Amino acid sequence: MIRVRWLNAQWPASMRTIGNRMKARPFTEDSVDGFAVERIREDFIEGRFIEKYAYQEINSDPFGKEEVVERVGYRSTEFTLHSQFPQVELRNGQRSIRDFVNRLLETCNFDLVVSPVTVNLLDWVSNLQASLGKEVTVDSLQISGVELEAGITGKILLKGDKDVREAVDHIVGGKKYVLEKIQMKLEMGSQRVTVHLANNGSAKVPPDHTSDLLPLLRKSIPQSKS
């Protein structure tokens, strides 16, 4: 599965200006990190953020003698920056996006605001159904913060061989809850594929369908009404 996450950003300049600034901070043999910009257009930038890191590898011989070998590794995060919401798309990146965001801030002379996306998952699925023009089946979802009794809250995982969305209200009985994650199945051509969504604006999608699904998922993300 391909891991994707979307973020909000308030750009201080045009995509072309920001893209050219990123090209001025390239990843080289002597870099600790940097950008590899692949395409710059009026409304988006595509590229990779590459990080170099050092680690130690311990090798043992048959006689119990250990040798410490210094190694160098590389991490790469694919990204697309858009002029419109959601402005940042990260693919197969690290769990921590701090280094990427820090370099992006430096590139924009710290005149940039990057913030998480908080998504109503049911609205996201409904928007996706409308874009696809066909039904989507949510066969698993996870909710938390359900008050079972005074001072006691619970986390509930629902699974089924049919859509489980309607079962939520029956189970929680009007109590407040947080919908954290869902798993859904949908038709893509002649295949039935599984997609995972989380309320922090992230998704896991099959690698064979990223080019079809990612634009639809991004377009379907509901903007917060706050």
Characterize the structure shown.
The chain is an alpha+beta fold and 226 residues long. It is globular. A hairpin with a 3-residue loop joins strand 10 and strand 11. It contains five helices and eleven strands; from the N terminus they run βαββββαβαββαβββα. Strands 1, 2, 3, 4, 5, 6, 7, 8, 9, 10 and 11 form an eleven-stranded antiparallel sheet that branches. Helix 3 packs across helix 5.
Fraction of residues in helix: 10-25%
**Parts with pLDDT < 50 across at least 5 consecutive residues:** none
**Intertermini distance:** 32 Å
Give me the Rg, rounded.
Answer: 21 Å
Query: What portion of the residues fall into strands of 2 or more residues?
Result: over 45%
Mean pLDDT: 92
Strand elements, count: 11
**Contiguous helical run count:** 5
Query: What letter string, H or E per element, gives the SSE order?
Result: EHEEEEHEHEEHEEEH
Let me know the largest β-sheet: 11 strands, antiparallel
Label the structural class. Answer: alpha+beta
Shape: globular
